[in-house]
User: Which sequence fits this backbone?
């Protein structure tokens, strides 16, 4: 049972983090320019250390 609860918690946190990335200004700009999800994920989010670590 603990494994299921742990997995659900991880899934909720992951989903919340992904949804919060959508409101970051440079992601909104990429969406407005017509960039696709894979492009945004690789080009912007994977390279953004500050988003992943919470630093400046």
Assistant:
């Amino acid at each position: 049972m603990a494994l299921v609860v742990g997995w659900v918690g991880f899934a909720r946190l992951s989903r919340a983090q992904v949804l919060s990335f959508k409101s970051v200004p440079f992601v909104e700009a990429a969406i407005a320019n017509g960039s696709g999800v894979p492009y945004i994920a690789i080009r912007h989010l994977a390279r953004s250390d500050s988003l992943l670590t919470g630093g400046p």
User: Anything to note?
Assistant: The chain has one domain: 2-53. The mean pLDDT is 76. The CA atoms of residues 9 and 15 lie 10 Å apart.
